[in-house]
User: What shape does this take?
Amino acid sequence: MNDMRLTERVRTEMATKMQARGVDVHYGDTHAIKDVSIDIPDRTVTAFIGPSGCGKSTFLRCLNRMNDTIPIARVTGDITLDGEDVYDRRVDPVQLRAKVGMVFQKPNPFPKSIYDNVAYGPRIHGLSRNKAELDGIVEQSLRRAALWDEAKDRLDQPGTGLSGGQQQRLCIARAVATSPEVLLMDEPCSALDPIATGQVEELIDELRQNFTVVIVTHSMQQAARVSQRTAFFHLGNLVEYGETGQIFTQPEDPRTESYISGRIG
Amino acid sequence: MPTIWLFAIVLVTGLAGFALARGRAVASAGGDTRVMHSRPLYHGLNGLLTAMLPALGLLVAWLILQPVLLDRAVVGAIPPEVLEDGAARSLVMADVRRVADGLDAAIAAGVATPEGLAALTAEDDVRGLLGQAGVALGSDVSPYVLEAARDMRATAATLRVVMWVAVLAVLAIGLGVALKRSHADYRARNFVERGVLVLLVAAASIAVLTTVGIVASMLFETVNFFSQYPASSFFFSTNWDPSFSGRGGGSELGIVPLLWGTLYISFIALLVAVPVGLLAAIYLSEFASKRMRSVAKPVIEVLAGIPTIVYGLFALITVGPLLRDAIASPLGLGNSASSVMTAGLVMGIMLIPFVSSLSDDIINAVPQAMRDGSFGLGATHAETIRQVILPAALPGIVGAVLLAASRAIGETMIVVLGAGAAAKLSLNPFEAMTTVTVKIVSQLTGDTDFASPETLVAFALGLTLFVITLGLNVLALYIVRTYREQYE
Amino acid sequence: MTDATASGAPATAPANSLMAPDARTARRNAAEKRFRAYGLGAIAVAFGALVVLLLSILSNGLGAFTQAKLSFPVTLQAEQVAEAEGALLKTSAYKAMLQEALAAYLAEQGTDVDAEVAISLLSDEAAATLREFALANADRYGEPVPFTILANGRIDGFFKGRVTYESAELDRNVSPEQLRAAESLRDAGVLTAGFNWSFITAPDASDNRVEAAGLGVAMLGSLYMMLVVLVLALPIGVAASIYLEEFAPQNRLTDLIEVNISNLAAVPSIVFGILGLAIFINWAGLPQSAPIVGGLVLTLMTLPTIIIATRAALKAVPPSIRDAALGLGASKMQSVFHHVLPLAMPGILTGTIIGLAQALGETAPLLLIGMVAFVREYPDAPPEGLFDPASALPVQIYNWTQRADPGFFERASGAIIVLLLFLLVMNLTAIFLRRRFERRW
Assistant: This one.
């Protein structure tokens, strides 16, 4: 069974994981997202780019219903995960977010030990039967986030004591530990220095093997480096969406071209 | 003439100084205020301050020091054997003061003349005479007290004259200096501003003076108390049993049962206030809609604005009888309306808004990123609060609880009316017990004799209370401040 | 490209549908609901406590505002009054006059109530009241003058349900016969209940005259103390705040002052009472029970509140205002007094009113400086009156709770209603000031 699914996944590598149709978002009186439809393929890194305030982060937060925590936000339209409407009344956002994890702009480790930070998700979701299993998940997650070697001797020290880049990798490890199917990243490198950024970018590329990654970035270079597909947002509209290489070399829309060549943004 | 007139003279002279200095300065500029260094207003203020402040300062200082000087002056008239211990000394001096006041009153009431007083001896009916003037004395007047009282009156009269002369002289000098300085080139503004700054510093220093006053007043009498009653018995005796015979001795004044009652009641109060206050704060800051928050928060804060005497009466006439009839009596736990439970419960209600508003601040100081991080991992709101927000806010909440504990320990009216007066070391919360504050009130109200250990013990109790609450406050403020800095 | 060993979700995470919550999620959601319920419960507890508290005070205290009174005409004769004034026991002479007048009136009305019993329904104050009335109405001797007088506390309590026939059997101070007489007098319209002005204006009364006890002296005393607090605490507090916020250098003295202020704000109020007793009364020799001492103690207690509020208000004025003034050549002092202080004024006033409200309700320190004494004389007008003995509202409440007659509990609750009304007005004023003048930068 496992093998069957595996082969199927390999074959339909570009199968659609998440799909949005006619999504509008209002913040109070502000129309933040206008009629966006997009297909996000499985096990790919999809980048959302665009000038600040274009709605790319807002749209990202719709994908795992993080906007629910903002009382004035109102989302209409359809967003599906594996064909299931995530805004259906029967869907529990908590369960959804276990499948669609999120990493934030600013590293936000909890004021707990490194171990407890990573074990937080598995604990609340009950992913382990015993301590040994939990230890395994923590180690595996830290390894996937390329943090194991630096952190293995100080697992009981507070996560807030790590450097900025390490903190962000800890947050990624924390997100990975819940075994999500989709990983949303909201400008994960904007608070990091270039070396830490390089490490995280490398990590994102590796994560693609196991997860569907959607990354919001204000850096076109970063989008070009890490993503296979790129969506360009402008003033709440999805202007253009396609292969990253194609978007950067032969944009179809003049607005995309202006942005890429530095005239807007 | 009463001293209040001297105040009036100083004030009026100050105002005159304002007008004169301003007028002189403007005149020296030939009426052209543009050539003056400072605006005329500042010359006026310079006149006001220079004339008035030194005289006012002298007057206030004099009035503060006069009682001490008077005591010094008349103590010579009293035989030294009466003055052997400090307690008797203050008693005698109080007598002297009362008789001296009585003699004044007698003259004012017209039942005696100054000449008559000079001829007065202890054999005459001094007590009766003062009684006619409306001053009731507790006992007959002994010769040396009368002598000292007469001395005191004479010295007081002299001092008063000296004070008038000194204050008026300083006033005149001040006014002279102010007027001499008032001309167009004088930098009146700079001078006035420096003067105002001094006043501002003085105002700010009152906080320090208050603390010094609190500590000094209690320390002095506490030392006095420990000279009459052993400190070890005070701190370690488990018996509180003051004798009411006054100076007869035989009192047992152990603080242990009082502290026990205080801590027991505070513990119950916190048991009520911390969960309710904390949960209310969590609900209001995390779950409640904006509208609900805007209604519920002020309503809870109303509880904080209600004076403690109101809670005390609530404990006395509603909660106490209710607890007794509904719980204590049926269960055979006691039949007293005043009890640890009554006082603790009501005090807990009083502390709810205190805990909730402090916790609210602290929970709101936890960055939103923490919540996002937890939600992003698929945690429920409750899980986020319990496992991320509360641990992050824990130091702040501990600080808030310590502040609440300090409040509970120092609270007076609720325990005076709700806890009872019997000092007891018992575990039964439905028994009446008493607290440090209750005993301070009972030992210091009514007829008090500031020489007996039964009265002085109140100061030792007060100092203990002050030290405990101060320690809690300092610790709490330190914890809260460190916590705030963590998220700034 | 795919690494099979690292791929796939762990076996423990079933890839089930979003639409069907698993058992664990259901459990977690139930926990979430429970948690919310605890929070709501806590708020309900706080609300409930407030409601019960207010209801208890209201139900116990509203009665204090009505009072049973007897109204009947009295005909005073000049010679009678003169004789009574000459008598050794003036009150008993007046009592006889009162009884005569009441007997005449009852006979005229044709009720079956015995005058002897009827007179026992009156307050112990009755004779003294008649004397005052007689001396004040010297021009109306010889004609019947309508006269209203308080019924005694037990009779008043009977109409308020506090005293019943059963309780009267056991009470030395009242008999069922008196209650029956009171009922027939009420039916005859002699005994009526009306608004109790004397509760607001009269001074305190002794233990067995609960019906005459009023709040006049206590309210005046509280007013005097508030005046002292306002006159002292506002300027000192504002001056201290200006220094700390605008001028204080970063040094040890400033730190010391800051630490002192935050600690004073949390010192138990009773400690301030000890301070007042030791410093103002024992050392400085100020009189006991005087509003000036109470005012001074409350000033020291209120200062931290005012300073904290004032500093917040000063801090809220943006630095650009100061810079603008300094840029025009104003001195630092001028920029503060001309610009910053006026802009901060609404916040300062709000803080001051809240501080005053706190001071108004404060009881414990006043007990220690002798405000608990029984005072029947109104203090003189300030400034001399500040040194006269007086009571204070919260202390009067405490005082009444210590009396034997249960009628005093009603008075105490009634006094609390008055106190809470004052506090309500003060806090509403503060809220109004904040709403009206608050400025957002």
